[in-house]
Design brief:
The chain has 10 helices and 16 strands. The chain is an alpha/beta fold. The protein is globular and about 65 Å long. Bound molecules: pyridoxal-5'-phosphate. This is Valine-pyruvate aminotransferase apoenzyme.
Length: 388
Amino acid sequence: MVMMGGGNPGHIPQVQERFSEILHELAIDQAAVRRLVGIYDPPQGEKQFISALTDMLNQEYGWGLKPENIALTNGSQAAFFMLFNMFGGDYGDGSRKHILLPMAPEYIGYADAGIAPELFKAVRPDITFTDAHEFKYRVDFDAVEVTAETGAICVSRPTNPTGNVVTDEELARLEVLARAHDVPLIVDGAYGTPFPSLLFVDATPHWNEQIVLCLSLSKLGLPAARTGIVIAAEPIIEALASVNAIMNLATGSFGAMVAEPLVRSGEILSLSRDVVCPFYKGKMERAVSEFSAAMGEHCRWYVHKPEGAMFLWLWFPGLPVSSLELYQRLKARGVLVVSGHYFFPGLPDDGWRHRNECLRVTYSQDDEQVAKGLRIIADEVKTIWAEA
Ligand code: PLP
């Protein structure tokens, strides 16, 4: 089976080498070992990591953070569960609020995170064509509606599944909306800036108290360490620490301790910019060129402009079978992808054909396998058209 369905990061030798070195240094230091495995951290997260991150972000970006602005979670996935249910769902005054996703498609991992039903409200994007076989989603601000029932706005930047990067201007407009309605703008930077920088276009790192910036060490190469980072106004961090205490007692120290030297020296930024980003950019370029060659001009196909993350979002307008059927046919041929229809949480079922015409294809793994998988996808799509 060619595995192109998951979100596992690639294995980057230079990054893994750094982790090995740091682990070795920790392992031979008795005091460090005690901290690494023998102590419960406070529910806000490992103190020395938070302090190093506060200093580094203030020095680089002048955000004026205090350690009270940062909490760690066991993976950023856990942070989204906490944040969505803190700001969305049932309020004490009897009202119920939703989380606004201003640009569908969005991350599949949000879909079932609500304790209350129908937590999300999503908005269809504008579609613009950027090349013969390339398109890009943009936020349709005419359709984005923030109301008294909106608890928070959330975007992933870069977006999983599309590889779209919400522009600085779009982000600024979303922030204006959030501020005007006094709700937080949650920015999911799992692939983004300042690290791990799986970004192939410019995107300015941005934070102020209106924003809840969620970062992660996973895509840097530490998915197993389960370390999420939330940067937000103090009352939000205080509440998150309380939820952490209830759910987990303490967060894990492992990721924080492995990454701390990289954060303290600022190396996490150069590693992201000079090693992680080019690794994925190269993979993306090879994947696009392989797929373009395999598809040729045979039928209508588009790829979303790959601006970041580790996915190609393929669109086959008018394909006679749904993306779910295409997924099943590809699985039967030994290629695992994800049908695009899963990535529209919160979008009412309005018969929009587009949501059943897309596939998410992960290109983070072995290049030859990725190329093989892309050739099979192209062949299957052509076969479907030939049968029609
Ligand atoms: N956000 C996005 C957009 C993701 O794609 C993922 C994982 O793939 C996450 C958040 C959660 O990552 P983690 O819990 O490993 O930090």
